[in-house]
Recover the amino acids of this structure.
């Protein structure tokens, strides 16, 4: 859908959404987003210009539907997919893309580490109508035959440009983790739990030189500026357990991410900031406020956070609690966690569970923030319940298949789809029926 | 375990924990609770005397292990079980009791409505080491052959005493829903969604007389006082959807529950207050504060709340978000919700899912409140993760079977239980390994 839009901008020296926004231009992408969000196009433009909202939309991902991440927009969710050394076919990843889009992921990160990474990414982008994000260090490492010490800045930039050229709309870059933070890491219970972060640590320790993503940040920005790839500034030092939450390692890195944000904005590159992780409920609001402060209100993109460390097997749920609260307090996008977190690799069913958990969290956050119209679908559901319209209830549920399946376990016959009761109270003592009698006598 | 304790009190005119507490006596139950909670026995006594904590322990449930519900104690969870017209054998309910206790329910409510209710309850109590709660109106209705208009106060009191005599430790009584609230119900989107509440409505509408539980409240208190049955004052008018949350119907009933609390305390009867239901995140704290105010700090026992209405099939999760927050803000017990909520009757697997979801919520709440030692198990889990001790990780997880099962899906062989990596990053780029290298170089 973006073919013509992008085509006519061909001669512009810079083509990022932020650049246009700052020129006072409302792009077609902004118009589209305004429509989807039910907001004024001029508000979208202002938010993008201010850096408080991003529209991740690589100029080469032409069939992508524009979407916005930022506090003025609805809370978004990301789902991670990706091949591994064990399961590395493109078809499998395309299947996952379909599951993600079916259940409503707003963006998808392709975290592939096994197989032909370029070919897989090409297929993923081809089948995605949502923005695709990546963590380029995974491919850089892959191209170095898993020898992190072979990483050079040239190799790094080559891979980043290759991915940008392919149509990736945002990159997680671990540029904020500096050599001087090593002693802070050593104080932690869990150290580094970010894979990209630990790779950076390994490289820095090997050469005792500064983080190459930090050193070459300007060159990375030039690539992002060229293709309008947004940056998702990675939190290499996100806490891996409650004990490490909101500690010096995390917050010192966050300050650097704030500095990098300003650098990116100088080049009209869109930025969001990645956040934790594992955080007890009473520290979530504080984390959101600190990010807003240190990072100049760039959109906050959090991973959960998990509100306890002992929920292995149910971490989608333990993290959805933190995610819902984070969204309410002001996070703009929630990265899902699946039930397999800390235990193994998610399959398609885990992806579904993770996405629905996060749709619940993001929607609950929109309601709690009082976003216009956020509760309309809930009200429609309540009306359907009250009217015993079961098919409508299934349709309005975040996972219609699951709702229908559970209902039909007890009452499978079609006639019960209009029955004025359900299996819980049975026909004689349905609360809704009794309420309707009250209404008749006492009026509405 | 309580046989001797109860035996020696035989001649006391009143034998409720609240009575003893007010006499300055620390009972064996209080001692036991103090040990379990890691609190001073005198604090327990004071809290029980003040009505801010209850120890639901019927004098006839002698093998029950004492436990406490109140803000000074750890956050508790309740699981509901119960027969229906379709599945009404006692053995099935005993199985559910075992599942509840295995996964850590702190109390169990037997909400049976089908089969021989007395016989089922007897079996449930026999197999339960946790307090059993009931909703007597279900049996009253059953004994009236499902004709609610046949309910009389005598019949009501007879059933209540029968259940008390059997050893039920707390009763949900819908005494706060008064005739004058009918017009408030008529204003709602969803009316009444509490089954007990709708039965009361049906009776009141039929006779146009005041709620019989309210009228006979003093007689009910006498029974509770005799057997030390705690009251769980039911919220007949809990909101059934976000649109009805915190409305006049809910709050007017809550005020009456506050009045009834004082009446109960006058007779040394222990009380907790039931709460919603469906509440958007931004109203949860307010709900907790209002209850504290209206109900004189009697422990608050909430059902979820669900933070969105559109999560059918995942309502255990949508409600665990609200429950965790409620626990953090000060609710003392969380009533679980299963994935079948709004759709059908839960099976054993649903019970497991519901309980674990609520264990997560209650534990996260304890951590967020900063309870002494609450995070110790999380720290132990983090240590086990860092040491690659997989068996220890499974053991510390809230659902060890599930954690092991998910891990073994990818790496089933025994050797991987000590492997210094997992299936997520593989052996070469384990973040923990890299952190350990940093530690060697930079010290702890």
């Amino acid at each position: 859908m973006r073919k013509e839009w992008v085509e006519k901008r061909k001669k512009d020296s810079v083509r990022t959404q932020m650049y246009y926004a700052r020129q006072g231009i409302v792009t077609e992408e902004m118009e589209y987003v305004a429509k989807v969000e039910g907001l004024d196009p001029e508000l979208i433009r202002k938010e993008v210009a201010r850096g408080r909202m991003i529209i991740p939309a690589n100029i080469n991902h032409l069939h992508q539907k524009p979407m916005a991440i930022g506090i003025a927009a609805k809370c978004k969710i990301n789902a991670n997919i990706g091949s591994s050394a064990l399961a590395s076919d493109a078809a499998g990843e395309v299947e996952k893309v379909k599951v993600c889009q079916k259940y409503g992921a707003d963006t998808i990160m392709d975290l592939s580490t096994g197989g032909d990474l370029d070919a897989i990414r090409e297929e993923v982008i081809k089948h995605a109508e949502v923005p695709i994000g990546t963590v380029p260090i995974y491919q850089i490492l892959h191209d170095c035959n898993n020898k992190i010490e072979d990483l050079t800045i040239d190799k790094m930039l080559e891979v980043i440009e290759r991915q940008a050229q392919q149509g990736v709309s945002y990159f997680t870059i671990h540029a904020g983790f500096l050599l001087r933070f090593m002693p802070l890491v050593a104080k932690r219970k869990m150290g580094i739990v970010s894979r990209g972060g630990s790779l950076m640590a390994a490289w820095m320790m090997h050469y005792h030189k500064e983080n190459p993503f930090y050193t070459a940040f300007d060159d990375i920005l030039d690539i992002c500026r060229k293709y309008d790839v947004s940056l998702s500034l990675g939190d290499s030092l996100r806490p891996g357990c409650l004990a490490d939450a909101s500690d010096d390692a995390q917050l010192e890195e966050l300050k650097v991410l704030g500095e990098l944000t300003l650098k990116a904005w100088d080049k009209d590159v869109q930025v969001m900031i990645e956040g934790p992780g594992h955080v007890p409920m009473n520290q979530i609001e504080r984390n959101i406020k600190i990010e807003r402060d240190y990072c100049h209100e760039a959109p906050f993109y959090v991973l959960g956070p998990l509100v306890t460390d002992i929920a292995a097997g149910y971490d989608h749920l333990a993290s959805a609690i933190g995610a819902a609260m984070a969204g309410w307090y002001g996070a703009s996008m929630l990265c899902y966690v699946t039930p397999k977190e800390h235990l193994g690799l998610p399959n398609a069913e885990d992806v579904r569970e993770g996405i629905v958990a996060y749709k619940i969290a993001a929607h609950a956050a929109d309601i709690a923030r009082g976003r216009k119209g956020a509760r309309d679908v809930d009200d429609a559901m309540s009306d359907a319940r009250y009217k015993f319209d079961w098919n409508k209830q299934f349709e309005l549920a975040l996972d219609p298949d699951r709702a229908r399946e559970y209902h039909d376990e007890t009452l499978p016959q079609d006639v019960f789809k209009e029955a004025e009761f359900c299996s819980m109270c049975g026909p004689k003592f349905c609360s809704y029926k009794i309420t309707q009698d009250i209404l008749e006598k006492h009026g509405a």
Notes: Residues 74-369 of chain A form a domain with the TIM Barrel fold (CATH 3.20.20.540). Residues 348-368 of chain A form the longest helix (21 residues). Chain A has two domains: 74-369, 374-442. Chain A has a mean pLDDT of 94.
